[in-house]
Structure formats: structure tokens, C-alpha cells
Design goal:
By secondary structure, the chain is mainly beta. It is built from one helix and eleven strands. Strands 2, 4, 5, 6, 9, 10 and 11 form a seven-stranded mixed sheet that branches. The protein has a four-stranded antiparallel sheet with strand order 1-3-8-7, with no helix packed on it.
Length: 128
């Protein structure tokens, strides 16, 4: 049993930066892969970035490479998403997710069905 709580969302102007946090508790030893997804109104959930907990290997949505950075602090059981050069189209609810598989292919980490536990989400709004 793992619990995930996101924080750090808010309102920011285009071109600005924001750092999201996802704090994990419970059976964190079963939390092998983590990811960030986002969902805008009337749109489907979209993959953002993923991280393998054991070695820190990362994967990103191609269009976000260079602007978004995923990382983790093992001692704090916390996942981060650093978002730079934000655009209005980045506006969405951002969710963190945890999975129990160490596999880290593109087909695996981009698929929301491969994650077992989800946080409640945090709103990010980017104004023009």
C-alpha cells in the first residue's frame, strides 16, 4: 500500500518556472517506477515523464524534453517535476503515479495502465 500526495501547483506566467513534488508514504519499497501525467479539461490523460527509482533512469514526452526535468530524493521518498519555460498549453492537473515493475521501455512507462497508485493531482495554470 502506497500513498502519493502532490503539491507545488499554482498560477504562473508564460515563460516562468514551477516545481512539483510528490511525497510517498506506506509501502514505499514496492514503489519501483514513478511518473508524472497531466490532464487538461476535455482532454485525455497525457504522459509527461517517468523515472526508475533504483537507478534514476528517466524518460520524457518528446515535446517536453529540455523544459521539464523529473528527479527524486530517495531519503525523502519524494518525486519532483521541474517545469521551466512554461507555456499556456501546459495548463492541466498534474498527477504522480507509482508502479511495481522495474521494466523501463517506452511502451511500459508511457502507459498509465502500468501504474498501480495515483495521487490526487495538483493544478498548474499558465497565463499568457
Amino acid at each position: 500500500q502506497v500513498q502519493l500526495v502532490e503539491s507545488g501547483g499554482g498560477l504562473v506566467q508564460a515563460g516562468g518556472s514551477l516545481r512539483l513534488s510528490c511525497a510517498a508514504s506506506g509501502r514505499t519499497w514496492s514503489m519501483l517506477s514513478l511518473a508524472w501525467f497531466r490532464q487538461a479539461p476535455a482532454k485525455e490523460r497525457e504522459f509527461v515523464a517517468a523515472l526508475r527509482w533504483s537507478d534514476g533512469r528517466t524518460g520524457y514526452l518528446d515535446s517536453l524534453k529540455g523544459r521539464f526535468t523529473i528527479s527524486r530524493d530517495g531519503a525523502k521518498n519524494t518525486l519532483y517535476l521541474q517545469m521551466d519555460k512554461l507555456k499556456p498549453e501546459d495548463t492541466a492537473i498534474y498527477y504522480c503515479a507509482a508502479g511495481r515493475s522495474p521494466f523501463f521501455s517506452i511502451n511500459y512507462y508511457q502507459n498509465p495502465e502500468r501504474y498501480d497508485t495515483w495521487g490526487q493531482g495538483t493544478q498548474v495554470t499558465v497565463s499568457s
